[in-house]
Amino acid sequence: MLKLEELREIIKMIDESSIDEFKYETNGTKIKMKKHPNNTNEGVALYKSVEPSDVAIQQTVVEPLLQSEPKTESQPGNSAGNSTEVDYDHEIVSPMVGTFYSAPSPESDPYVKVGSKVEKDTIVCILEAMKLFNEIEAEVSGEIVEIMVKNGELVEYGQPLFRVKTK
Known about the structure:
Helices cover 8% and strands 36% of the residues. It has a 4-stranded antiparallel sheet with strand order 6-13-11-8, with no helix packed on it. It has a 4-stranded antiparallel sheet with strand order 10-9-7-12, with no helix packed on it. The chain is mainly beta. The model is unreliable at 39-83 (pLDDT under 50). It has one helix at residues 4-16; strands at 21-26, 29-34, 46-47, 71-74, 85-88, 90-93, 98-101, 117-118, 123-129, 132-137, 142-147, 154-155, 160-166. The N and C termini lie far apart (53 Å). It has 1 helix and 13 strands, in the order αβββββββββββββ.
């Protein structure tokens, strides 16, 4: 029988590969996964005859990485090609792997822009992971001084999303 961690690894490897469909059978366990690049509501399909005693689920709480030391770095992507320094003392980082969205919908204004004032509970973006949309809060009070990712970009766990000059 596959362990939950092994199943997660298989899903991750298939998701990161160019494989569109995957089937696996062993000892009465059958797994079938399909990727749908056209973003339909169909997702990964898993099936097996399972007794409740066969499955153990472990929940892990993941805390975002916080940087509290003041930093000054060059701003990437400056269109003039000049190196400008950004003064900040906090980075809002991604608490998960997912797709970054700067606004609640394509027609809406972004949650925040450079210069926006934020409070601890201010929503700064949405991260989509496995068809779930997660609102990300600033967790600090201050001013957004740099947005480090583009709308629709895939982000990694711990990747800096925003730089904030705290109050």
